[in-house]
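User: Let's play a game. I give you a shape written as tokens, and you guess the letters that built it. Ready? Here's round one.
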């Protein structure tokens, strides 16, 4: 009996220490296979809409319970995770609720009727409160307006794609209206100005934004540069695009490039190529999930540093320092053009098993030093550079240095999506002379896998692997964003 009591006391003390450490916290994200409503092209009754949403809320509640039982202190669920997508403006209306400003100090679970009909907010609040965990979810907000507002829509209301966060006591602590709407989100309105939403917890300061926002300065970069958030909550409905914009690839790179924790919860729909969620730290992915085969949701839980920039793993980077001291070594007549996401890159092929090569476009020069275990005759790799304004599905200025596997030995296929490779690299080092300080380092391996702990970014801007990777390489990329050159995007500092 005494031994049993001693063991229980030891276990309790260990548990308390483990989950109330001053240095770390446990985060969770849930990739959700959304149950889509049977009717999305016309309005239904509010009762029918709520019934459809409850089907998804039932699944999300189970995920929250699982995460809380395993000690998670916060969980993120996906964009469109409660009602789906592909609505028109009228059809989404019965799914919306008035979401008040969190400053009003409201706990929907204990005051369900304070702001009128709000069954989704009440349920989310009670889920958070019952399980003593912070819950981030994506819902729809509605705000009436009238003719005194010159921008008021004709139907007399603003409709916003909205993220909400409920604290572990059920209180509403954050509300964010998505600013950068993706093509096809005509059911929602863009806020007049970008919102910079943060909230404080005992385990750090959090910011929140949604999906397409991550490609722009506001609000994403502003939250890190000027409001010094430690962690970002990121509900998303991300459609993967190789070679540079798969969810796990770009989101892990954003965490590394910005020096923050990044909790990304994606919707799961293989028909629309939506998968890829993760819990990312500045040094590496702590947990990730990519599944293009099944229709199953997936829960991730991982430990993160509360203040990642104070971690010994964090390194501030001067992205051009190393490359600025290098000369270009490739012959101009060896370069050729190829296309990635309709951007025209300047490429040069990797012709040897080991060499140093360079390629330039405009003011950007990219340098690669590499060694292959064995050069495969049926596989072709190329080093590419792009320095220009991307204008497809959004407008944003890029500077990109990338090593890519071509689809086949035909030069015309360099830059096309590829999911598998067999060439193994013993080492590689990629750098570039960037005009921007915002660069996101990506390494993607065969089968669409990340390479956590298998590469490093040095403070002089080199993305380097000295001992190779566990799988053959699909792409190695320094993805730079030059926000000041986006031209039409509002840039608040």
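Assistant: Ready! My guess for every position:
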């Amino acid at each position: 009996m005494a031994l049993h009591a001693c063991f229980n006391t030891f276990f309790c003390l260990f548990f308390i220490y483990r989950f109330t450490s001053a240095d770390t916290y446990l985060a969770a994200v849930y990739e959700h296979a959304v149950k889509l409503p049977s009717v999305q092209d016309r309005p239904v009754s509010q009762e029918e809409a709520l019934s459809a949403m409850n089907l998804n809320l039932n699944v999300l509640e189970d995920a929250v319970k699982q995460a809380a039982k395993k000690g998670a202190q916060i969980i993120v669920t996906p964009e469109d995770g409660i009602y789906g997508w592909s609505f028109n403006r009228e059809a989404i209306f019965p799914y919306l609720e008035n979401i008040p400003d969190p400053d009003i100090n409201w706990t929907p679970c204990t005051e369900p009727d304070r702001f009128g009909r709000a069954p989704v907010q009440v349920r989310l609040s009670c889920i958070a409160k019952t399980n003593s965990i912070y819950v981030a979810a994506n819902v729809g907000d509605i705000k009436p307006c009238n003719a005194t507002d010159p921008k008021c829509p004709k139907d007399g209301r603003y409709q916003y794609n909205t993220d909400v966060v409920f604290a572990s006591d059920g209180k509403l602590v954050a509300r964010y209206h998505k600013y950068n709407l993706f093509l096809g989100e005509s059911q929602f309105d863009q806020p007049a100005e970008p919102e910079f939403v943060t909230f404080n917890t005992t385990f750090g300061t959090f910011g929140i934004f949604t999906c397409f926002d991550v490609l722009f300065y506001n609000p994403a970069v502003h939250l890190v540069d000027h409001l010094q958030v430690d962690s970002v909550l990121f509900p998303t409905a991300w459609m993967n695009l190789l070679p540079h914009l798969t969810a796990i690839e770009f989101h892990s790179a954003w965490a590394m490039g910005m020096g923050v924790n990044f909790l990304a919860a994606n919707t799961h729909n293989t028909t629309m190529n939506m998968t890829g969620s993760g819990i990312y730290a500045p040094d590496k992915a702590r947990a990730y999930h990519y599944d293009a085969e099944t229709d199953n949701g997936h829960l991730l839980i991982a430990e993160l540093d509360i203040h990642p920039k104070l971690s010994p793993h964090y390194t501030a980077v001067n992205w051009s320092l190393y490359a600025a001291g290098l000369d270009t070594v490739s012959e101009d007549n060896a370069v050729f053009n190829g296309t990635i996401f309709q951007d025209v890159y300047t490429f040069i092929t990797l012709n040897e098993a080991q060499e140093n090569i360079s390629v330039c476009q405009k003011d950007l020069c990219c340098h690669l030093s590499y060694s292959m275990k064995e050069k495969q005759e049926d596989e072709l790799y190329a080093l590419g550079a792009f320095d220009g304004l991307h204008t497809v599905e959004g407008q944003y200025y890029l500077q990109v240095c990338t090593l890519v596997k071509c689809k086949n030995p035909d030069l015309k296929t360099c830059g096309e999506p590829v999911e598998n490779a067999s060439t193994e690299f013993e080492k590689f080092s990629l750098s570039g002379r960037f005009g921007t300080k915002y660069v996101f380092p990506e390494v993607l391996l065969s089968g669409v896998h990340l390479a956590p702990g298998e590469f490093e970014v040095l403070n002089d801007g080199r993305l380097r692997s000295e001992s190779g990777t566990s799988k053959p390489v699909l792409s190695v990329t320094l993805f730079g964003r030059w926000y000041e050159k986006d031209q039409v995007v509002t840039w608040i500092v």
